[in-house]
């Protein structure tokens, strides 16, 4: 839900997947053999496990959860990290006196909510999984799940049934309400939204945005174009906030807000809210037209560029500073995820060449054939 902007071999796939997984595992254990002197203990955990041989000849089981955490172990930013470095070398400074100083781990839930099945899962069951062929929905879900693994957050993928009388996006309020009691924060993203920096934790962003205990909802505004001022605005000409990325905090006002939002289309508390059952922007319009006016001081509205949009969007500078939301060009969800993962994988490879681990670099002082 967004502003109308112009769009900026013969072997089986499973064999290729197995080979790729093996290469990654061999690389990880080879690298760790250089870093640690003896036995590498890995605890057993849930998830897909692989039995591998360490450099000492010991057979151990390691899960994808542990592989991801290992890859990002030296990359993760602390909640109070002074700054985050952008790929272009510039820095995003953290304001002084951060509120969230400790990692919250499983007190934070990363939430995916879909009425659609993952096509990649169907392909996997048929033995046809191929990263190159998955759509943006799976790409977004993989981004969110990987992010949760890196930082030790809880993760849930809720496959919800659709309403009979309203648009599918109306499933958001009830899903949030059913899980918020178990967490301090829920972070929800649409499938076409993605964390830009997988190594930057939610706690850091909470500090950066100065999220206070009274804030029940954190959302970014949509783009606003003076040429089409009515497009992303409510009846009072106030810009909508986008529900494609939400941080929901468990406090005394959260459940009343979610209940009012969920029941809005029934026209009991808010007359004419039923008009947003189907027309765009569905539950987002209802939140912007009604809910936020009763609970305004409990909502933190971020500028569009902080957690909405993507590179190339000039209106309202919606560049996706921390969270990108690809209303168009959705294939870039996969691109962002790939670049994050490749940075984590290639950093230790670069370390090998920078420090000449194992003598991989040999100086040839004379360009001649030696007898």
UniProtKB/TrEMBL annotation:
GO MF terms listed in the record are: glycosyltransferase activity
Protein's GO biological process: protein N-linked glycosylation
Regions crossing the membrane = 12-34
Spell out the SUPFAM superfamilies in the cross-references: Nucleotide-diphospho-sugar transferases
Q: What keywords appear on the UniProt entry?
A: Glycosyltransferase, Membrane, Transferase, Transmembrane, Transmembrane helix
Highest taxon in the source lineage: Eukaryota
**Classification via InterPro entries:** Glyco_trans_34 (IPR008630), Nucl-diP-sugar_transferase (IPR005069), Nucleotide-diphossugar_trans (IPR029044)
Q: Could you tell me which residue ranges the Nucleotide-diphospho-sugar transferase domain spans? A: 170-298
Gene Ontology CC annotations of this record: Golgi membrane
Protein family membership: Belongs to the glycosyltransferase 34 family. Belongs to the glycosyltransferase 77 family.
What name does the UniProt record give this protein?
Nucleotide-diphospho-sugar transferase domain-containing protein
């Amino acid at each position: 839900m967004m502003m109308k902007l112009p769009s900026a071999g013969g072997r089986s796939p499973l064999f290729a997947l197995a080979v790729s997984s093996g290469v990654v595992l061999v690389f990880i254990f080879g690298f760790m053999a250089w870093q640690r002197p003896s036995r590498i203990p890995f605890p057993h955990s849930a998830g897909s496990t692989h039995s591998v041989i360490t450099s000492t000849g010991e057979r151990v089981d390691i899960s994808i959860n542990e592989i991801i955490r290992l890859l990002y172990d030296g990359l993760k930013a602390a909640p109070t990290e002074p700054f985050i470095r952008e790929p272009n070398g510039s820095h995003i400074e953290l304001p002084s006196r951060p509120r969230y100083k400790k990692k919250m781990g499983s007190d934070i839930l990363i939430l995916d909510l879909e009425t659609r099945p993952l096509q990649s899962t169907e392909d996997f069951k048929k033995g046809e999984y191929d990263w190159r062929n998955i759509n943006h929905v799976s790409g977004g879900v993989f981004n969110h799940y990987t992010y949760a693994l890196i930082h030790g957050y809880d993760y849930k993928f809720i496959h919800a049934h659709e309403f009979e009388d309203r648009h599918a996006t109306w499933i958001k309020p009830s899903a949030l309400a059913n899980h918020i009691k178990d967490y301090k924060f829920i972070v929800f993203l649409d499938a076409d939204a993605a964390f830009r920096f997988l190594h930057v934790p939610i706690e850091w962003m909470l500090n950066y945005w100065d999220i206070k205990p009274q804030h029940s909802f954190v959302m970014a505004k949509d783009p606003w174009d003076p040429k089409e001022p009515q497009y992303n605005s409510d009846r009072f000409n106030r810009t909508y906030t986008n529900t494609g990325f939400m941080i929901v905090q468990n406090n005394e006002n959260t459940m009343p807000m979610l209940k009012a939002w969920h029941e809005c289309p029934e026209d009991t508390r808010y007359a004419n809210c039923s008009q947003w059952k189907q027309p765009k922007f569905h539950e987002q319009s209802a939140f912007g037209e009604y809910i936020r006016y009763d609970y305004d001081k409990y909502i933190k509205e971020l500028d569009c560029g902080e957690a909405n949009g993507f590179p190339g969007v000039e209106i309202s500078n919606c560049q996706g500073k921390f969270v990108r939301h690809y209303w168009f060009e959705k294939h870039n969800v996969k691109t962002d995820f790939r670049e994050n993962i490749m940075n984590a994988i290639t950093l230790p490879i670069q370390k090998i060449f920078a420090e000449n681990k194992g003598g991989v670099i040999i100086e040839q002082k004379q360009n001649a054939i030696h007898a």
